[in-house]
Specification:
Helix 5 packs parallel to helix 8 and helix 17 packs across helix 21. This protein has about 450 residues and is an alpha/beta fold. The strands form two sheets. The protein has a six-stranded mixed beta sheet with strand order 3-6-5-4-7-8, with helices on both faces. Strands 1-2-9 form a three-stranded mixed beta sheet.
């Protein structure tokens, strides 16, 4: 569009009125909210994909010449390719326009991060995209705004990008290509249009959302949360990642767990080598079925319904060998029924193990729930639930406000969370308050 504004489809005209006496249908028609305009075309059309060094150098120059915050998004091929790497990076900045960059062709995009300098990054659900962006050399050099996290702090009931755009900017965003295989090359034009639209309104959305947070008195809270997301270290490798196999609860013995582990690790090797999602090599339900059935021959394995497909029949010898490795492991090498617990036990066992800790947790949860309702902030955003449990299980000594402030800060709570909760938590958790558990009433803010 020549006016630089995104193109939208016209809102649907209102439908015909219901006939008199039609009861609920008439009421529903009268109360229905008017349809919002749907964003259909990027403001400057769909840009060419940046996919070679010369185009990347030009994109960096354009980005450096831009001003203000930088809208950032990334598309992965989850469920199609191995891992969580980015297959398209979208950027938008005033004076730059929209850039669509192919990190599959250009695996080092650090020149773009350098060009952006200390510009504020604006993302929706930043925690999902920052790891894959870091893998291609892109890290924010300045502040960060996460519009999903901001929407949570603002108390919005729905925090997906489309829902927040509807609420704050009055437009709808079609999401029909959100789950496609972004490793496809060349990328179809409708997908590129969708990708460009994903960053089209992030900058005005940022302005509108920060205004809401400022009006609610939550802007400083949000800034602290955004900084925590930006500065979060990479997630450590999971211990025994094979234990995340869906349906593992059906596996009863350590020997069967060993078979799950062998099948899972074999599947990982194949998936990584072929660069496909592990679930496309062998679904979790097949792993669990083989571990519970313990087949000892190709015929027994093929008799399992989940192994009846042609791909699994071709790999029958591979899967059977993995099963046999698990079956042949010495007893001492079998995996334990569960991983050793780090931190407090499950709260359901606290009343038996430590009644005082159970009482502290019930009282603390009352405080956090009351504050959550009062401030219209989700409980999990008001204070990390794991930190609350750890603090109640091993409280500071002395258990007073100063001690609780130190404990919460050491556990990663942000200053705004400590200031809001430490006084009431200290009062509620002290033994002399007479709190004995749930149902004793919430501490008042």
């Amino acid at each position: 569009m020549t006016d630089g504004q995104p193109r939208t489809a016209a809102a649907a005209p209102p439908g015909p009125a219901a006939a008199p006496g039609s009861g609920d249908a008439s009421t529903a028609s009268e109360d229905a909210a008017p349809a919002l305009p749907v964003l259909t075309e990027p403001a400057e059309g769909v840009p060419e994909v940046v996919a070679d060094p010369a185009a990347l150098a030009d994109a960096a120059e354009r980005l450096a010449a831009g001003t203000g915050p930088l809208a950032v998004d990334a598309e992965r091929a989850s469920g199609y390719r191995y891992g969580q790497r980015a297959f398209l990076v979208q950027l938008r900045r005033a004076g730059t326009g929209t850039l669509l960059v192919d990190p599959d062709a250009l695996p080092d995009l650090s020149v773009l991060a350098d060009a952006a300098g200390d510009a504020e990054w604006v993302l929706h659900a930043a925690g999902q995209d920052l790891p894959c962006l870091a893998d291609v050399g892109m890290r924010p050099g300045g502040d960060l705004v996460d519009t999903e996290l901001g929407a949570r702090l603002a108390g919005f009931p729905r925090v997906g990008l489309a829902a927040v755009l509807q609420r704050l900017l009055g437009v709808d965003l079609a999401k029909e290509h959100s789950a496609v295989d972004w490793s496809t090359r060349p990328l179809p034009e409708p997908w590129l249009r969708y990708a460009a639209l994903d960053v089209e309104l992030l900058l005005p959305l940022r302005d509108a959302l920060l205004a809401v947070l400022d009006e609610q008195g939550k802007l400083d809270w949000a800034r602290q949360e955004f900084a925590a997301v930006r500065d979060a270290p990479p997630a450590p490798p999971r211990t025994d990642p094979w234990r995340r196999t869906s349906g593992l609860h059906a596996v009863r013995s350590r020997r069967q767990l060993a078979v799950v582990r062998e099948l899972w690790e074999e599947r990982e090797r194949i998936a990584q080598r072929r660069d496909v999602s592990p679930g496309r090599v062998l679904p979790d339900r097949a792993v669990v079925a083989a571990a519970t059935a313990m087949p000892t021959s190709p015929a027994a394995l093929a008799a399992l319904p989940v192994f009846s497909g042609p791909a699994n029949r071709r790999r029958a010898a591979t899967w059977l060998e993995a099963v046999r490795r698990g079956q042949a492991l010495p007893e001492r090498d079998l995996p334990p029924p569960s991983t050793p617990s780090i931190g407090p036990p499950p709260p359901r066992s606290w009343k038996d193990k430590d009644p005082a800790a159970a009482a502290r947790l019930a009282a603390a949860r009352d405080v956090v729930a009351a504050r959550s309702e009062e401030l219209d902030v989700p409980v999990e955003n008001l204070l990390q639930p794991d930190l609350l449990r750890r603090t109640c299980w091993e409280p500071p000594s002395p258990l007073d406000e100063a001690g609780l402030r130190r404990a919460l800060a050491a556990g990663g709570a942000r200053p705004w969370q400590v200031d809001l909760l430490a006084p009431d938590l200290a009062a509620a958790m002290r033994p002399e308050t007479g709190r004995t558990g749930a149902g004793s009433g919430a501490a008042q803010p």
